């Protein structure tokens, strides 16, 4: 009854997923982890009884003990691993992006369609965050009327040294693109990267503000601030005809001292979305066992990557870039 | 020692100012109020001992008992009354806008310069709101680094039936324009009105989103929502290099009942900015007595009207409109 | 029309009152200030045009220009000055306590009754704080059912060196006693001082917790913490049958920086109750002009002092002390 | 590697534990559930593959597939089942109370001591709630100085019809007693039940206020309000020498509508402590596997029951009741 899970990638994200599989979800067993850097794979496998280390992700996928695969390896390796999972007929939860290019996403999507079976889930974990779930249900119930605007901010305390302006879009903004589509049930039809003052010497274009236009007329302004200094903070206000909703966050204790009353921010995504990652895994396991899939699918992965490509083009050109929809 | 004040206009705003002069500031006496509708003027004068009613604002200005004038009459009458005050050598606090057109503002500004004496204050009362004052001082102290972005929203519960899309700009957005200039110490160089979904049948373009570009690179997104339904709510987040500041508001009691924990919003600006109006009057009286003027002057009035004209042009054309600065 | 006000006492509290009279209320003029330390009286009178300095409060009361008197001198002088005001037939706003002993309060109360005219208001300014006013109106409207419990805390950042345990009661707790009576419309019938751990070496019994029993069965726990270190903070939660109400406070800006999201506390009562003091003066001036008095009267002053005496007795004995009501 | 868990009791609490074991923790399998009402046991076992139903808890304990036992049956059955677990040498997580009487607790404690092996954990799940954990760590780090006071409230939306005043203590207050001991590291030495106004006709003595005195001088006031109407709300403020800490709670979205800004309360403990129950189980499983036990042990279970007995005695007598410590 317990499902054997293999994790590809033993970096920060892969290690986190591996530990969540092993300790914080039911009905699963971590049986394998792979990383080209064998020591990283061994560090995890040594920690978790019954988990074997691999250096080759394709071998992990082929291993009979691995019943379903979680991909947390570098972005450019995603397509190859996902296709191998499809070839092996195994369920796969692939970290975003499904592929760095829309061509890659399309290849994967077509392969899954040819197979005639849904096996791919994309790791847009915010769809499992209780606050986003509640925000979407308010909208669906219609009690505030239709959606008009969304104000979003995605703030990291600090970006790593290798961070590029493009990565604000491919790493951070894609989460916003997916959640905007998911919350409103509408497609993104245009995106514009705006000029603003920059932090420090401005080598990194930070913060970056995007205007996102949805097919149903909803407009979203999205701030992406990778060096916001004060902490990890994800903010969304949904403005409807009869009221607005602010995204909640886990509320730590309130400390009164030294003249102020303060709550702390988490230093990174783990303190904010740890629960969403856990619930995403739980839901994915349920779908592996045959329940209706709940998360983002390959077409959602494609949609997010296409908007990201448009945002990168706008960043380059300084102009509004439209996104053609595939629908006939 | 007590200064005799005359108020022109006995509508909602004028009546409020009259009562504040009479009861909530020191060293002033309401001696006159005028309104073409004599019954409105009499309603106020009957309420306040020592206050005489007028139907003609120019007569009020000329009256010797009136030492300083507060103008709260319809916008198109402002220029004439302000010029009359200058002619009489009397201090004047003029409700915004100083004039509906930049040409009108310029006429007034030049008349004051020709006089060689600063007599005009424009009623941008937010400059006296303790929350904005604190936000500005944070920026001035530099402890959060330089300003990068501002996120603003101006929400009214409901707009009157005669409200037009243009009035979102001339009545509401002008406060945002002035406060953005005052907070950052920088000029607005361009404004863009954006398309978004509209409430109801969309006869009124509501909400309206403006992008405001400042000379120092700061970018502000400004939501103007005249029928936001839930209450009167003014929101500003200042995003700096090392932190952000959210505008506070008077915090009423927290009510826990029926499944929720709630605070109420005021139904209009009186519940939010009553104190700012009072403090503005107090500061204006001090300047009438000879202290350094603290509020917006005629050139600030001109600047706000010029940005409003650009915003109206953008609303019409759908394009970004630049604002030429007068500076050499 | 303008009322001439004399202030007795030019310490921190008297100086604050004098400036509020001069600048922040309408229809009044500060005409006199007295202090045995002439330099203190002159410091204020030099600041405010038309204000004359006195060294003797009785002379100030007798001065014809003084139409109404505000007493902010040391507690033990209150009775003498209040009686002199009654003798002169002048309205008096006396800082709490009306008298340090219930005998003193009773003497004053009887003198006023003999006069047959209400001239005394006691400075329990919280009755004018908008948050307390709203809390009381919730209770009166009955929408939450009847009151059951109150949880109160009175915290000062630091107590002056001369502070004694008794002063926690006579200076701080009296405000709580008055507001409990005023909120609930019920009398206090018993009070118990409880033992708890103490800050520092415990020379000052701080914090002190009092249990207060009301005639209608309502129970209040009151924390008095004179060296709470983090700021000035007054907290009240009213627990009713169907919900609770937390006292709001002016909400300064929210600062996000260095890992936290914080609001500041005022360092003393001026940042919290400045508005209540202003509104109290405004209401008192209205009653001087003949309107229905709105604040605490001499019998309220007596009631608070009687409860304070009981609390001091309980502090001494460690036992519950009952308070006999005068009512037949 | 997976541990086979048996749950005794298939009521609300037992069913919740069973589902958490099956779905939300790693390395465990729900293999058995028992309830005298066979249909309740079958309802759960039918839902979870591999889980067998029992009607007799002792049979469940004896079953070889059951490696560790979770007791969620009626209070009076706890002692028998715990002793059977000890007899079988199996780890047991027993819902509070360990036993309804201190004699029962002592019997169990002595049996465990005789065995020479720690096998018992008591279900005081708050010790795993992240907010309490953080509050305790603040105290341990000493950055706010020593603890002085605690203000606690335990509010349920509604109590079931069969609820008695005693149950406010045995069901609700015991959690407070345990957490006070755990937070401060000090023992409770006396408790006093106070009189207050009551909701409705007062048949149930509700709310109930307890004064709790700790060995180190800390004083806690504890409100127990079983019909607080507005929602499930657990509040704790820890007052230290240099600051205070308010217990956080999961912060749902903020809804602005109809004149207010509101957050909702959960309707019962599941919305507040669901995560604590999950983390408690996870930690218990780790201790079953041999790690250092983290939760409350049998002596903690005894301590809570002894304080509850004292509180019941005080409820009866109206007097302060001391609790003798066992320590030599």
From TrEMBL, chains A, B, C, D:
Gene Ontology terms, MF aspect: nucleotide binding
InterPro entries in the record: Gfo-Idh-MocA_inositol_DH, Gfo/Idh/MocA-like_OxRdtase_N, GFO_IDH_MocA-like_dom, NAD(P)-bd_dom_sf
Domain Gfo/Idh/MocA-like oxidoreductase N-terminal as annotated: residue spans: 4-123
Any Pfam family matching the protein: GFO_IDH_MocA
All copies of domain GFO/IDH/MocA-like oxidoreductase, residue ranges: 132-245
Entry protein name: Inositol 2-dehydrogenase
Source species: Kumtagia ephedrae
Upper lineage: Bacteria, Pseudomonadati, Pseudomonadota, Alphaproteobacteria, Hyphomicrobiales
């Amino acid at each position: 009854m317990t499902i054997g899970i293999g994790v590809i990638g033993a970096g920060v994200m892969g290690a986190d997923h591996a530990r969540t599989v092993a300790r914080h979800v039911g009905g699963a067993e971590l049986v394998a982890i792979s990383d080209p850097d064998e020591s990283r794979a061994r560090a995890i496998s040594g920690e978790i009884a019954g988990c074997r280390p691999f250096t080759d992700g394709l071998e992990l996928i082929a291993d009979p003990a691995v019943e379903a695969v979680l991909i947390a390896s570098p972005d450019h390796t995603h397509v190859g691993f996902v296709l191998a999972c499809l070839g092996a007929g195994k369920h796969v939860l692939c970290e975003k992006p499904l592929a760095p290019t829309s061509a890659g996403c399309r290849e994967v999507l077509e392969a899954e369609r040819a197979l005639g079976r849904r096996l791919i889930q994309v790791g847009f974990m915010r769809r499992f965050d209780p606050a986003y779930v509640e925000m979407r249900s308010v909208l669906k119930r219609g009690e505030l009327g239709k959606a008009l605007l969304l104000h979003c901010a995605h703030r990291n305390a600090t970006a790593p040294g290798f961070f590029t302006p493009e990565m604000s879009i491919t790493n951070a903004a894609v989460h916003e693109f997916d959640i905007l589509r998911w919350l409103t049930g509408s497609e993104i039809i245009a995106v514009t990267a705006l000029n603003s003052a920059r932090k420090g010497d401005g080598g990194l274009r930070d913060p970056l503000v995007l205007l996102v236009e949805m097919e149903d007329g909803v407009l979203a302004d999205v701030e992406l601030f990778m060096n916001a200094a004060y902490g990890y903070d994800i903010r969304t206000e949904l403005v409807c005809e009869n009221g607005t909703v602010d995204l909640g966050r886990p509320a730590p204790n309130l400390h009164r001292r030294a003249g102020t009353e303060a709550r702390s921010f988490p230093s990174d995504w783990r303190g904010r979305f740890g629960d969403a990652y856990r619930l995403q895994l739980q839901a994915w396991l349920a779908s592996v066992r045959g329940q209706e899939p709940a998360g983002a699918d390959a077409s959602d992965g494609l949609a997010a990557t296409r908007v990201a490509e448009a945002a990168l083009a706008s960043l380059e050109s300084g102009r509004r870039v439209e996104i053609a929809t595939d629908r006939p």
